[in-house]
Give the backbone structure.
Amino acid sequence: MQLAMSSRSPDNLLFFCSVMASAAAAAFCLFSLYRHLVRRRCHVGVAVTAGDSEEEKRRQTLTVASSLQPFMYDRLIRHSGKGASWTECAVCLGVIQVGAMVKLLPACAHIYHVECIDLWLSSHPTCPLCRCRVDHPAEVQETAGQLAQLSPA
Amino acid sequence: MANSNLPRRIIKETQRLLSEPAPGISASPSEENMRYFNVMILGPAQSPYEGGVFKLELFLPEEYPMAAPKVRFLTKIYHPNIDKLGRICLDILKDKWSPALQIRTVLLSIQALLSAPNPDDPLSDNIAKHWKANEVEAVETAKEWTRLYASGA
C-alpha cells in the first residue's frame, strides 16, 4: 500500500503540472487570437473630422506612410490574402520574394513591396486592396508591432 | 520608342488579357504604343445593349497604376452615365481608383455599367432625364442606337 502511494504521487504531480500547462497554453492562444481578430477589423468609411484641410490630410498620410516600418519578407509572416505557394504584390503584380523589403498595413494585414505601397500612401491613406484607412495613428504602430511579434522571425 | 521602359506590371497585365480574356471583352495593345489599347465590349444579355459590339479606347497614363487608366467609348451609345464624347461616369476611374484594380477589372466594371445604368448619377443630363421620366422609352432608344451604331460593323 505504502509502496503503491509513493509510486503514484509523482504521477499525480506530473499529471497536475501538465494539465496546468495545457490550460495556460490554451488561454494564451485564445487571448492572442482574440487580440489579433479585434485588431484586424477593417476601419472602412471612418469619417474625416470636420475642418481637416487637404494639407493636413496629406501631412497625416505622409506621417502614416513613413511610420510603418519596412521589414524583410519571409514565408512565415502572417498576412491577409496569403496564397498557398506565393504572395503577389497587388500594386506591381510581382511575386513577393523571400528577402524582399515589405510593409504590412496594420488595420487589414495586407502586404506590399515597400516602394510600391509608399508611392501609393504618399497621396492616399487607404489600402489598395480593401480601402481600409491606414491613418489611425493611435493604433497603427502598436498593431504593426503586435503582428510582427506574432510572426515567427 | 514609347514602348521602351514599359513597366513589368503593364507587360504582365497585357499577357494575361491576351491569354485569358474576360467573357465578352477583348483588349489588345496598339503596336506603336503599348499603353494604348483597342477595346471591344459586347453588350450584356438582358440589357438594351445586347447584340451590340462597342469599341472603346483605353490609355495607361505615365503614372499608372498610381493613376486610373483613361477610357472612352468610341461607339455612340445611349446611356445616362456616358456622354456624347464617350466619356464614362464611373467612380473607379476617378476618386475610387486603386492600384489593385487592373485593366481587366475596369473593363468588367464598364460592362456591368451597361447592365445597370444609373440615371441618379448622370453624365448625360438629357439621357438621364429621359431615363427617369420614361424608362421604357429610353430603353427603346438605347436599343435603337445599339442597332444603328453598334451592330458589329
About this structure: The helical segments of chain B are 8-19, 103-115, 125-133, 135-149. Chain B touches chain A through eleven residues (CB under 8 Å). Chain B has four helices and four strands. The mean pLDDT of chain B is 95.
